[in-house]
């Protein structure tokens, strides 16, 4: 993981990319912002499907014995596990890899749209007392709490209708990260065993993220809070619990009360875009870095984020941006939360223009880019179609060799240079 905070990641499936130059959004697991799912394959033999179900039942029986040995009660096993079904659709979604990726500016257009901003203001007005109570208790601004709610589940209107138990059982039996899903399934059974939620009400995404907050079960155990003091932690139906749990997560992820998440920047013409280190605000200022409006925040440790390269907006981000990244480790996600929160609070959003004329690379384009960088002597690892930190470093090195701005942002023009 790129951030050295000893907290488990909330997400079941997230990219561990560096903060700087995230570029494009490849996968998001947040409510209404999912990539459009398509089927990868069709099972064309009923006999094969029936065999799969039989094998799943055998796996479930074995897992039942394991869960009982781990202390899960017989009543919970009987009501929550014994009737769990294999869900083929979960595996189709787990194995789906979209060919086309959304540029970050298109994602932000949706994530922080006027519709979502207005809905966020309405939700904040409707639950202002609760939001302010959680702000006071945890030090996290009310607009940040509401913004995460909006990004995660569109304010509760879309947190998924998969049975969490069936989704995790299917992934534990047949998914890409079986051991991980097995542990999350056991955590889900503990939650039911403790009385927080009934099995049939434990709903969420295909990946096991649950409720308004989209916590996976292990994160629920670690961070969910009984905000309304009714003896249960209910992130499915209790807004006080939703807000308290979100704020508690961010507080424990290192949220610094009174600090902004960051600021939009004006960078000098001579700026070295290859810098990925964190520095103090004073050190960045000594290089000619200035806030686009007002003054730089007084950060002890801050990074410069250029999600679309030198032609797009730049941001100085501090500890609170990193705390949002603990919720979902994608620069596009953290920037969406920050931008939506600013707009909900009546502040201006991102002012500088995005390079909307750029055509994003497809997954096959990225694989070709990786192969050609390797062939040219820039060791970026396997050609997996994902713009990870090694690939971005290879892009920066190649850009520098060509006399280009080494911002790590891969474009169609850059790929053409490598051909």
Automatic annotation (TrEMBL):
<feature type="domain" description="Transglycosylase SLT">
    <location>
        <begin position="55"/>
        <end position="342"/>
    </location>
</feature>
<dbReference type="GO" id="GO:0016798">
    <property type="term" value="F:hydrolase activity, acting on glycosyl bonds"/>
</dbReference>
<dbReference type="Pfam" id="PF01471">
    <property type="entry name" value="PG_binding_1"/>
</dbReference>
<dbReference type="InterPro" id="IPR043426">
    <property type="entry name" value="MltB-like"/>
</dbReference>
<keyword id="KW-0812">Transmembrane</keyword>
<keyword id="KW-1133">Transmembrane helix</keyword>
<feature type="transmembrane region" description="Helical">
    <location>
        <begin position="12"/>
        <end position="35"/>
    </location>
</feature>
<dbReference type="InterPro" id="IPR011970">
    <property type="entry name" value="MltB_2"/>
</dbReference>
<dbReference type="InterPro" id="IPR036366">
    <property type="entry name" value="PGBDSf"/>
</dbReference>
<feature type="domain" description="Peptidoglycan binding-like">
    <location>
        <begin position="363"/>
        <end position="418"/>
    </location>
</feature>
<dbReference type="Pfam" id="PF13406">
    <property type="entry name" value="SLT_2"/>
</dbReference>
<keyword id="KW-0326">Glycosidase</keyword>
<dbReference type="InterPro" id="IPR036365">
    <property type="entry name" value="PGBD-like_sf"/>
</dbReference>
<keyword id="KW-0378">Hydrolase</keyword>
<dbReference type="GO" id="GO:0009253">
    <property type="term" value="P:peptidoglycan catabolic process"/>
</dbReference>
<dbReference type="InterPro" id="IPR023346">
    <property type="entry name" value="Lysozyme-like_dom_sf"/>
</dbReference>
<dbReference type="InterPro" id="IPR031304">
    <property type="entry name" value="SLT_2"/>
</dbReference>
<protein>
    <submittedName>
        <fullName>Membrane-bound lytic murein transglycosylase B</fullName>
        <ecNumber>3.2.1.-</ecNumber>
    </submittedName>
</protein>
<dbReference type="InterPro" id="IPR002477">
    <property type="entry name" value="Peptidoglycan-bd-like"/>
</dbReference>
<dbReference type="GO" id="GO:0008933">
    <property type="term" value="F:peptidoglycan lytic transglycosylase activity"/>
</dbReference>
<keyword id="KW-0472">Membrane</keyword>
